[in-house]
């Protein structure tokens, strides 16, 4: 560290490190993908701007506002409030923090009712906020059981959570019903659409899965541009029906140019907003529809191939996530890893899980299926 090193040598070191990363074409376990080229360009141009001090970067701040406008439009509420987060984890933590601030709940008593399938970011949120999670069981199709949610609610419940696109199985909860429950009980409902938010609106029949602000009980939504939105990492979106709800997060920051802050991070990159703005403007609904329709066609291809091998699916894919029961899924995953294929496994039930992101093309699927056949023959 004492003496600096020449640029050329460092660039070589960086190249070496970059080459050791797994190329996306071998990855069926990730919810991220190669960002769109225009997102990369925007990211590079804005990497030095800091939205933690937005009055110094008014241009970047205007891109963030435009992103929230476009995300709101996608989620049936063009007037939604919100900000660009670092991803689903920050959005989920902040949504629960909002609910806790609004209810002025007793520390240590407050609870949140959510599906068993909800992402582990809610566990992080619960630890940080000092609230208890009450996880409701799922039905046979791995959607949350709404009656069970209703039974878990008591006077210390401060919010409900529903998931549009579960991490493991890509299932969508019955959010219309949960929205009704939230209204009956006067509770804040947060929808985690970190994954499904950029998929469901672009399906052939999006009205089959109503999940966003068109449902009157939905108060906040997490939607991640760095997953199916084709933006750069980190880019998340947290949107609110009511600006006043977001204001519950307000922290005064006297010495900053903006005086108040809502975000969890203080200093935060403007590149997230710029990249998301660029790719959403460039693709438009039409572009995303094309991408999602390709992913869904490839999902069907993978599903059909695995069924033809005599394997049993956990559920029929709702979004672009495929899960199949295989004997000893952990061992299968390890054998595939030896062949340089990256897939994940689920626990309940145990299954092989594959996310059909845009980089998982027809060719990738055919090559993967051929290798999976070899692995299953010997396991
Ligand atoms: N909500 C849902 C429904 C999610 O699936 C995830 C992440 C989150 C929230 C949290 O989002 P951030 O990770 O952006 O904070 N789901 C994936 C997971 O945890 C994320 C992921 C992405 C994992 C790429 C691996 C990977 O290679 O499994």
UniProtKB/TrEMBL annotation:
Keywords tagged on the record: Decarboxylase, Lyase, Pyridoxal phosphate
Pathways involved: Cofactor biosynthesis; methanofuran biosynthesis; Cofactor biosynthesis; coenzyme A biosynthesis
The enzyme's E.C. designation: 4.1.1.11, 4.1.1.25
Cofactor(s) recorded in Swiss-Prot or TrEMBL: pyridoxal 5'-phosphate
SUPFAM superfamilies reported for this sequence: PLP-dependent transferases
GO biological process, one term: coenzyme A biosynthetic process
Keyword Metal-binding assigned: no
Catalytic activity: L-tyrosine + H(+) = tyramine + CO2; L-aspartate + H(+) = beta-alanine + CO2
Modified-residue entries (N6-(pyridoxal phosphate)lysine), positions: 227
InterPro entries linked to this entry: GrpII_AminoAcid_Decarb, MfnA, PyrdxlP-dep_de-COase, PyrdxlP-dep_Trfase, PyrdxlP-dep_Trfase_major, PyrdxlP-dep_Trfase_small
Sample GO molecular function, one term: pyridoxal phosphate binding
Domain of life: Archaea
PANTHER family associated with the record: PTHR42735, SPHINGOSINE-1-PHOSPHATE LYASE 1
NCBIfam families: tyr_de_CO2_Arch
Function: Catalyzes the decarboxylation of L-tyrosine to produce tyramine for methanofuran biosynthesis. Can also catalyze the decarboxylation of L-aspartate to produce beta-alanine for coenzyme A (CoA) biosynthesis.
Family under the similarity heading: Belongs to the group II decarboxylase family. MfnA subfamily.
Protein name as annotated: Probable L-tyrosine/L-aspartate decarboxylase
Species of the source: Methanocella conradii (strain DSM 24694 / JCM 17849 / CGMCC 1.5162 / HZ254)
Upper classification of the organism: Archaea, Methanobacteriati, Methanobacteriota, Stenosarchaea group, Methanomicrobia
